[in-house]
Write a structure and sequence with these properties.
The structure is a homodimer of 178-residue chains.
Chain A (H helix, E strand, L loop, with lengths): L22 H12 L5 H12 L3 E2 L1 H11 L5 H13 L3 E7 L2 E6 L7 E5 L5 E4 L2 H13 L3 E12 L12 H5 L6
Parallel strand pairs in A: 4-6
Antiparallel strand pairs in A: 1-3, 2-3, 4-5
Helix pairs in contact in A: 2-3, 2-4
Chain A binds a DNA duplex (25 and 25 nucleotides) through helix 2 and helix 4.
DNA sequence: ATCGATGCAAACGATTTGCAAACGT
DNA sequence: ACGTTTGCAAATCGTTTGCATCGAT
């Protein structure tokens, strides 16, 4: 998995079956409501997407989906992910030009990102205090906040050369930037 | 201009001539140091860029520059802005796919963004308290923070239909998202 | 005179779309 | 059967680059 602990663990409740812990159900009801169809390639893509709790690129998603359904094309992945976004299940993150990653948004609270410049690993965290402050700041400008993006770029212990320091990314063994 | 007030005005000091208040000087010395040349189209582009204290798209920058130098091409704008980035004068912000804006990075502190979903207007703000909290959060994960990106998406007063509410973007008359 | 800079147009990578065939309802 | 979805390839968008010419030092 590409991501790690939360500062303030919130969803300590049951992870499946609950009202917001069932993205697959949301997906199905979204399709039904819209009169759309459940195809095998869509299922393959959605399953691959949901299996990954971190961030995915569309190429990764394509190969994942192809393990179940070798016939899927890249265009279908784009189309399906767009549906997932409209359904509120997926959220796009634009980390740079041509570097768009997607993540599961359903049932998850606002969360922020810590990104290691050296190894590219991404940690998620939450902070209610920060949320409060940013809402206050927005209010001062007459805004109400619907979504937000908060990314901190820096170096993990390991990358800073701290003896015994470990990069959480290496501990998890994933997503090391070239 | 596309951006507005700061929550905590910091650079109240002299805006020109100081060690970090002279981006044009930085630019010239950067060119000299690298053995690059000062051309009229570069000057036109850099001047247009510095005249705008907020965010610019490259198309906007092109037309601005063309008012001084009708012969400039889009490729030159790209090349010049890349130089500005290398010189540390410009910073790119990727707000979405195909929506890259540039801003002056020289002499400016970390700042966050408030973005109206309805009209696309972007306000900047700063909050030392948020900075403190995010540094603390990073520290808890063994990170030190070098840069960060903090964007709040929501609706301005006008867009929420508040009587008498004004969208700062419309007040400034710029950058209304389609 | 030399070497970098320019403009144009072609190249490029990521994303979208037109279309006939295939599939789910 | 009907209308949606698919895969492919072509189209499109933003961005980059090759190349012959132009301009600054």
């Amino acid at each position: 998995m590409a991501t790690a602990s939360s500062l303030t663990p919130k969803n300590a409740g049951p992870g499946r079956g609950g009202p917001r812990g069932d993205p697959k159900g949301h997906w199905r009801s979204y399709l039904a409501r819209k009169g759309l169809k459940t195809t095998q390639q869509r299922e393959a893509i959605v399953d691959a997407f949901l299996r990954i709790s971190g961030h995915v690129g569309l190429e990764d998603l394509l190969s994942s989906a192809r393990r179940k359904y070798p016939r899927v094309g890249l265009a279908t992945v784009y189309r399906t992910v767009k549906l997932l976004e409209e359904a509120g299940i997926a959220a796009a993150r634009h980390f740079g030009p041509g570097q768009t990653l997607y993540e599961v948004s359903e049932g998850r609270a606002h969360h922020d990102h810590l990104i290691c410049d050296a190894c590219g690993f991404i940690i998620e965290f939450e902070s209610n205090e920060i949320e409060k402050l940013q809402d206050a700041a927005a209010k001062r400008h007459g805004f109400n906040v619907l979504r937000h993006r908060h990314e901190l770029f820096g170096l993990c212990e390991k990358s800073r050369g701290i003896p015994g320091g470990v990069c959480p990314g290496e501990a998890a063994g994933r997503r090391v930037r070239s």
